[in-house]
Amino acid sequence: MFQLLVLVVVGVSGLAITNMLMISVHERRRELAMLDAVGSSPKRIRSMVLFEAVALGLIGGIIGAAVGGFGRQGAVRAVQAVSGFPVDATFSAVTLLVGVALVPAISALGALAPALQAGRRARIDRVG
Questions:
Q1: pLDDT range class, residue 2, cuts 50, 70, 90
Q2: Fewer C-beta within 10 Å: the chain N or C terminus?
Q3: What is this structure's pTM?
Q4: Sign of the dihedral through C-alpha 75, 78, 80, 82
């Protein structure tokens, strides 16, 4: 059940990143057209959006790992206090590091559609 919950959270996070970057590309359409007008290629604009997503994912992964690592002990104690049962929750540094490593990859996957749109949008806005 918990593994399914993790998959749902990862899926929702990927959709949130995609949505955020789509809005960002839409709001920055004039900036993207200006980059295109001064000679930037659509490939470079796509790379810029992908890099932005990976950087945001990396920062979010590090902050999430720090908050999760420190907040885990308090959450375990709270569950024990509420339920009255001992909870055997072991800390796994490997799981934490895998999570931090996967967040930029999920961010890059979520950024593919906005990056493609940004590359096309610069050309369209310049012509139109």
A1: low
A2: N
A3: 0.72
A4: negative
